[in-house]
Design goal:
Chain lengths: 324, 450
């Protein structure tokens, strides 16, 4: 056989790693499934309905948006599915479905596509949508029901000062999710499982989750006068785990460098703790991540590594060279 | 357990940042180098090195023999070219090279005899100057792929600011195994070459750096150091982590010595000279025999090649002849690469002569490599994580598209060596290497305007 057809001439490298954007998003979806199953067990099948509405609306909005803007279709990368899932996870189970749909439309159309689509949004779409819903429908967004009974979230109980221990769920309930809260945030064990999966698959670096949760832990330990129990409740309740593992690690809205990630994580932790301790809201994860999202370009500018061998940073090699 | 006995084998001084693990695909690692019969003709381009092109010293109709000098120049940064076959000069004209450039070339029709040129004698080497002169006369250029004339590097010596000779046997590109075969088949020559270079050029230390996926080569070279160099404590083998691009000049210097070559500087600025392992073995052979660089080993592999081999080929043989020698194609070739799959150049046809610095010919059938569709950047930062030069490829790509020369200069893109690690990992399938090239040309253009 000889060269009959024209050969393909393209620039190097000629081999590519098997990773694709779709594969990464699929990994995130897989990592969210334990929490979804837990939510269905805890809150019932209404969870599925909320999730389907959120995901469906998100994908449809993205499809129509790209169509109207005459851009190439991007629903295949599954990022809209992830946004829909994360938004659903940040809503109470009792949320009217039309509000859930509005949330998805805000996330995809306003926050994501209007800024240029995947990789271009400056804040996390699901979180921004959640905050807009929170200020638009404050009552419906903070009605927590468990087994058909309206209940308070552990954080709200802690905040109101009623540290009557009987008012708080047990530590085991905190882990498995038997307490009030958004449908995806309650089951700590499932979220941690998902986080481990993402770290093992190298989809996310542990830098942000660890620095974020670590900062909150230290500050809560101090605020709670070194009560381990108080600190544990703070870490396992509210949106801290889902926020630190799934939302703060969003590629588009977090720094690229390791140093930047640590600064970002600590920043999120500081703001979360400040809101929880001093703020009017019992919960501060959404706000803290959004605020840090906005600061990302500045963090990037300060933490971008100098090109290899740039002097100044490399006094050691210079000295050696001078010696030699 | 890495598979080599640790005795006398050094490990990396610094584990550099970045890099990617690419499938090694060293399919031909056990294929002994076989000598290819003389081709019907060879085409010898006047530019087979970095630097000034040579001028032909022969004319059409001249009879030439193997090793006879046929082209040279009085420019310093260049290397003479010798006939790789015996026969008759039939044409002096222009040919297209693998990289698409046009070069003047001498075509020699072989008589099939491979008669050696009578005037070849081992050079007298008694001091550094003799050795440097011999290196130039041998026509040696960096055999690892760069093609930098060897004597230019060596002419820096003896020099009290340069203490270390690094012999590069990393061979981090997938598929290519000629340097490994060189280590396995000519280990004595390599170590003798090291001893010679150290003795005459005054290197304080010599480190032969090999990736740790080649334990047999490490063990063999280590044994030869004991046997041939008499256990010279300043000649050592170093096993480096197998990761691409471990063999890149700056990466290797950092791994071996812990020193970082600053942007725009050379290895000599941090006290190092780097040479490919086959180049070192060749210098020794030249000193012993006086036979100049007229042939080299290449790995011929890939899913479209019938019988992958390591072949010793006369310089200037057409790639087509080399592939024919390996049984031709077993499948329709889709892409043919001169060099490795990470940094090699895809060539437009096989009627291209093999140059001194070409270390591999890889031919692939369609579908061997999955082509990733190009999507939008998701800012995952993988490109920045793997960049051995600590650059931010996506940021550079963005500025390159908007042609912002000042911002591009600040990104430090000029230190990019186009190793392709960023494009390799990119989940969005972005052609980042092209963006880097574009960025460099934007900076150069802006510089030219000023």
């Amino acid at each position: 056989m000889s060269v009959n057809k024209k050969l393909t001439v393209s620039a190097s490298p000629h081999v590519r790693s098997p990773h694709t954007a779709t594969g990464i998003m699929l990994d995130v979806i897989i990592a969210l499934i334990p929490a979804l199953i837990a939510a269905i067990v805890i809150f019932g099948t209404q969870v599925l309905l909320v999730t389907i509405v959120c995901v469906g609306t998100a994908v449809l909005s993205e499809y129509l948006c790209r169509k109207v803007m005459k851009r190439h279709q991007t629903i295949g990368d599954l990022s809209a599915v992830v946004t829909g899932l994360l938004l659903a996870f940040n809503l109470p189970v009792s949320i009217p479905l039309w509000i859930a749909a509005i949330g998805s439309i805000i996330a995809i159309v306003v926050v994501k596509q209007m800024f240029g689509g995947i990789g271009q949004n400056f804040v996390n779409p699901a979180l921004a949508a959640r905050i807009i819903l929170l200020v638009s429908f404050p009552a419906k967004m903070t009605t927590w029901t468990l087994d058909g009974v309206t209940t308070a979230t552990p954080l709200a109980s802690l905040k109101s000062g009623a540290v009557d221990k009987t008012a708080l769920p047990s530590m085991v309930d905190m882990l498995i999710g038997q307490h009030g809260g958004c449908l995806g945030e309650v089951c700590s064990a499932a979220l941690i499982l998902g986080g481990i999966y993402l770290i093992v698959r190298k989809v996310i670096s542990p830098a942000i989750p660890l620095s974020y949760i670590g900062t909150v832990a230290v500050l809560m330990l101090i605020a709670g006068k070194f009560s381990l129990e108080f600190t544990a409740y703070q870490l396992l309740s509210g949106g801290l785990l889902i926020g630190a593992i799934f939302m703060a690690t969003d590629y588009t809205t977090s720094p690229v460098s390791f140093k930047g990630k640590i600064i970002f994580g600590i920043g999120c932790g500081l703001i979360t703790a400040a809101i929880r301790i001093f703020g009017g809201y019992p919960e501060g994860v959404s706000f803290s991540i959004i605020i840090m999202n906005i600061l990302v370009p500045h963090i990037e500018r300060l933490t971008t590594a100098k090109p290899f061998g740039t002097p100044k940073k490399d006094k050691k090699a210079e000295k050696e060279a001078a010696k030699a | 357990m890495k598979g080599y006995s640790a005795g006398g084998v050094l490990s990396a001084v610094v584990k550099g940042r970045g890099g990617v693990s690419v499938s090694h695909s060293k399919n031909t690692q056990d294929c002994k180098i076989v000598r290819m019969p003389p081709p019907e003709k060879v085409v010898l381009p006047m530019q087979q090195h970095i630097g000034a092109p040579c001028e032909p010293l022969v004319k059409i109709g001249d009879e030439v023999k193997v090793g006879q000098i046929i082209a040279d120049t009085d420019k310093f940064v260049s290397a003479p070219i010798h006939s790789s076959v015996s026969g008759k000069v039939t044409a002096i004209g222009e040919v297209k090279l693998a990289n698409g450039s046009i070069a003047k070339a001498v075509t020699i029709e072989s008589d099939g005899e491979m008669t050696m040129f009578e005037g070849l004698e081992p050079p007298k080497v008694e001091n550094a100057q003799d050795l440097i002169k011999a290196a130039r006369a041998s026509g040696l250029v960096g055999l690892g792929g760069a093609g930098f004339p060897a004597h230019v590097k060596l002419a820096l010596m003896p020099n009290e600011n340069i203490d270390t000779l690094i012999v590069n046997a990393a061979e981090c590109e997938p598929y290519i195994t000629v340097d490994y075969r060189e280590c396995m088949e000519n280990s004595a020559n390599i170590i003798k070459g090291v001893v010679t270079l150290k003795k005459y050029l005054g290197f304080k230390k010599v480190v032969i750096a090999v990736e740790d996926n080649k334990p047999q080569a490490i063990n063999l070279l280590n044994k030869q150091i004991k046997d041939i160099a008499g256990g010279d404590k300043d000649i050592n083998i170093m096993a480096l982590k197998s990761k691409y691009p471990q063999g890149a000049e700056k990466v290797m210097i950092q791994s071996v010595t812990g020193r970082k070559v600053p942007p725009g500087k050379l290895p000599s600025d941090v006290g190092c000279v780097l040479m490919n392992v086959a180049s070192v073995a060749f210098i020794q052979r030249y000193i012993e025999t006086g036979k100049p660089l007229v042939s080299r080993s290449v790995t011929v592999d890939g899913s479209a090649i019938h019988t992958p081999k390591n072949v010793r080929v006369p310089i200037g043989t057409s790639i087509n002849d080399i592939i024919e020698f390996c049984g031709g194609f077993k499948a329709e070739p889709f892409k043919i690469i001169s060099g490795g799959p990470m940094m090699g150049a895809a060539i437009v046809g096989t009627d291209i002569p093999l140059l001194k610095q070409n270390n591999a010919i890889l031919a692939f059938a369609e579908g061997t490599f999955k082509v990733k569709p190009e999507r939008d950047c998701i800012r995952c930062g993988r490109c920045a994580q793997v960049c051995p030069m600590s650059l931010m490829p996506t940021l550079i790509a963005r500025y390159a598209k908007s042609k912002e020369a000042d911002k591009l200069t600040d990104t430090g893109v000029m230190v990019c060596m186009e190793c392709g690690s960023c494009a390799y990992v990119c989940p969005a399938g972005l052609p980042l290497v092209q963006h880097m090239l574009l960025a460099k040309s934007v900076i150069r253009e802006a510089g030219a305007k000023k």
